[in-house]
Design goal:
Blueprint lengths: L9 E17 L4 E16 L4 E5 L6 H8 L7 E9 H16 L7 H16 L7 H19 L11 H19 L6 H10 E4 L13 H21 L20 H14 L16 H13 L5 E5 L7 H18 L2 E6 L2 H7 L2 E6 L2 E7 H6 L4 H8 L50 E2 L5 E2 L14
Parallel strand pairs: 3-7, 3-8, 5-6, 6-7
Antiparallel strand pairs: 1-2, 1-4, 8-9, 9-11, 10-11
Helix pairs in contact: 2-3, 3-4, 3-5, 4-5, 6-7, 7-8, 7-9, 8-9
The chain binds adenosine-5'-diphosphate, iron/sulfur cluster (SF4) and magnesium ion.
Length: about 450
Amino acid sequence: MAELPKADGTNLFDVVGLKKYFPIRAGLLKRQVGAVKAVDDVNFFVRKGETLGLVGESGCGKTTVGRAMMMLTPPTEGYVFYSTPRQIVRDFAELLRVVRGVNKGKMSRAEALELARLIEKILGSGSCTVDEDKKRQICRGAVAIRAEVQALGPDEKVGGRERAVQDLVDDAMTEIVERYCVNYKRKGEVKRLRGKIQFVFQDPFSSLDPKMLIKDIVAEPIKAQYRYIDRHRWAAKPNPAAKDRMDRPYKVRKPEVIRTRVIQLLEKVGLNVEHMYRFPHEFSGGQRQRIGIARALSVDPEFIVLDEPTSALDVSVQAQILNMLNQLQNEFGLTFLFISHDLSTIRHMCDRVAVMYLGKIAEYADKNELFARPTHPYTEALLSVIPVPDPDLKRDRIILPGDVPSPANPPPGCRFHTRCPLAVGICKVVEPPLIDTGGEHFVACHVRAPAPGIKAQ
Ligand SMILES: Nc1ncnc2c1ncn2[C@@H]1O[C@H](COP(=O)(O)OP(=O)(O)O)[C@@H](O)[C@H]1O
Ligand code: SF4
Ligand SMILES: [Mg+2]
């Protein structure tokens, strides 16, 4: 589990312990014989209004992270907190760490006390918006258990009370995740959230339905979301900050309102009214990606996952699309998760960058910090091969030996040890935790960012 930053306030998303395993099935009965560990215990956060870049080689799990955050693929494990007070996320992550560390049937007195303390701290906090009755009930339980366990001797096991502690932890975690985590919300609530989170797909050729007119493609999310847009976002309390934004179609089901909105959206992305009655095959790759962006914007989202939005386009068109995305972000106050395998694009677009390797985050920091001081050997290797526009500047390119191992059978310990030039004995056995090396620069490496209590040798 990663150390979480100390900043107060609220992030738009906090991803805690996210895992996505795809089952591998074989034989006549399609029995599960293994799993592709596409995303394996990933932790990061996205601040409101920023662009977080997710970079890594093909197949390292970037798309799966984006899809899991949007609930297009349900995560195997983990929590995607949405607009949750930072302290609650920190305490929840700590609670999870203690729960995962408990040796079943052998819970210690200290562990039981710590679990009860954390539950009281989270649910007793004024910023926690879990139902008041539930909060009171669970906190009373935590106080009672704490008193019972405190009466035990310092080295005594919790014994028969372990079950009660586990039940209390289950109740508390259920209340918290149902209140704050997008992947534990009820169906209707998920549908409402989908309007706030949109996805722009990698391939502009397959992501638009070839049988639909552009006007219908762009209007599709509005029609699917009208109930939620109407009730929860557009028709709700007027937002003075949004005055200059596009007209809010209050009665979004009316055809003339949808038509006006579609025209506005097309103009926003550099197309116009005459494109409405055409089919996707009549457009170039860049134009199709613009249509995809208009479709994502149609429901006035807060957050957009941009999955390699320019990798299928010519370089000149790439620059136009990236600049347009920057403008749209400023105009609408959008937050982006920008997925790419290209570090030059990431450098142009992002505020902070997370580097992924084989389903895990290797390093994650502010963009300028990461490019100036790459700390993880994998980041160093990635940065060393970016072309620089200076023929006299000599750079030592780091060419990594071997191929990326299969996510179905990742190496033990540090996943990068089979290719790492700095690997030492411990790297093959112990997985390095993601450590804050200062100023929210997170690194997972025994040599470059040793965790307290783990000796690199
Ligand atoms: N639906 C799926 N079923 C099985 N394996 C999948 C599925 N989606 C992705 N994977 C596997 O998960 C790993 C990560 O994939 P992905 O997230 O698409 O990587 P990236 O976007 O970084 O290229 C890959 O090994 C891929 O083969
Ligand atoms: S933990 Fe070891 S193998 Fe992994 S990146 Fe650091 S030095 Fe290399
Ligand atoms: Mg991908």
